[in-house]
Design brief:
Layout (H helix, E strand, L loop, with lengths): L2 H10 L4 E4 L1 H8 L1 H4 L2 H13 L8 E5 H36 L18 H15 L1 E3 L3 H12 L11 H19 L6 E4 L3 H4 E2 L2 E2 L3 H8 L1 E4 L2 H8 L2
Helix pairs in contact: 1-8, 2-5, 4-6, 4-11, 7-8, 8-10
Length: 231
C-alpha cells in the first residue's frame, strides 16, 4: 500500500501503530537463545490484535524489511537450532541421572524435538508478516535515506547500512503524515538495534529530535512496545 492509502486507513480506524524493524521479528526466533518469553508473549499478542475488526493494533512492515528478513532468517534459524541441540544434550545428561532414580519417583523422559518449536515460531512470524500492512517504498523517503547514509547520520553514524536508513525514513514519513492528520494513537518504531539507533530517550545523532518532531516513539522490543501502547 502507498503511504497515503495507509494513513487514510488508519485515520478511519485508529489504533496504536507498530513500525517493525527486521530485528524486532528476528528476536521472536531468538527467544530460544535468550529465553525471553515476554517478547514471545507480545508477538502472540500482536498476532491476535492485528486481525480483529476493527483492529486493536496496526502492524506496519516496509518492503525493505522483507528483504532483510529473507536474508537474515537462515542464520538466526541456524543459531536457534544449535541452541536447541545444546539444550537437548544437557537434558539428556539430566535424564541419564534420572534413569538411576528409583522407578516410582522417576519422571518421564522429555525431548525438546517433540515440542515442534521451529514450525511454531515460523508460523507465528509468518502470520504477523501476512497480517501486517505493507508500506511500499517511495522515492521521497528513498532520496532522504541516501542523503542520510552519505552524511553518516544515524542510523548510519556507527556504520549502519543504507537499508537501515531506508527503513527509518519510511517510518518517519508515516509518523509525520499521521501527525499531520491529528492521529492521536501512539506510533512506535520497534528495533533492538541499539548500536545504530541508541536507547529510548537517548537516540543517536539527530534521531531523537526527528522522532520527537514526527511523533514517533522508540521501543527496543515488542514487549517494550506493548508497555507503551497498552494494547
Amino acid at each position: 500500500m502507498t503511504l497515503t492509502e495507509i494513513v487514510d486507513l488508519m485515520v478511519r480506524q485508529p489504533a496504536p501503530v507498530l513500525c517493525l524493524d527486521t530485528c524486532s521479528l528476528l528476536d521472536v526466533w531468538r527467544t530460544l537463545l535468550r529465553i525471553d518469553v515476554q517478547v514471545l508473549d507480545s508477538a502472540q499478542s500482536v498476532d491476535t490484535a492485528i486481525v480483529t475488526t476493527p483492529p486493536q493494533l496496526w502492524s506496519v512492515i516496509v518492503d525493505q524489511v522483507q528483504v532483510e528478513w529473507d536474508r537474515n532468517l537462515p542464520t538466526v534459524r541456524q543459531e536457534a537450532g544449535t541452541r536447541l541441540r545444546e539444550l537437548e544434550t544437557a537434558l539428556k545428561r539430566v535424564h541419564d541421572v534420572v534413569e538411576r532414580m528409583p522407578t516410582l519417583t522417576r519422571p518421564n523422559h522429555t525431548s525438546l524435538n517433540s515440542f515442534l518449536l521451529d514450525p511454531f515460531l515460523e508460523g507465528l512470524t509468518k502470520s504477523i508478516f501476512s497480517h501486517s500492512v505493507r508500506l511500499e517504498l517511495n522515492e521521497s523517503a528513498g532520496a532522504k535515506a541516501l542523503k542520510r547514509n552519505l552524511s553518516r547520520c544515524a542510523p548510519a553514524e556507527q556504520g549502519g547500512s543504507i537499508e537501515d536508513c531506508v527503513i527509518i525514513e519510511h517510518y518517519l514519513g508515516l509518523a509525520s503524515a499521521l501527525k499531520a492528520r491529528e492521529f492521536a494513537n501512539p506510533v512506535i518504531f520497534v528495533s533492538s538495534n541499539s548500536n545504530d539507533y541508541g536507547k529510548p530517550g537517548k537516540l543517536l545523532g539527530s534521531l531523537q529530535a526527528e522522532f520527537d518532531g514526527a511523533g514517533l516513539q522508540f521501543a527496543v522490543h515488542l514487549a517494550h512496545a506493548r508497555s507503551i501502547a497498552r494494547w
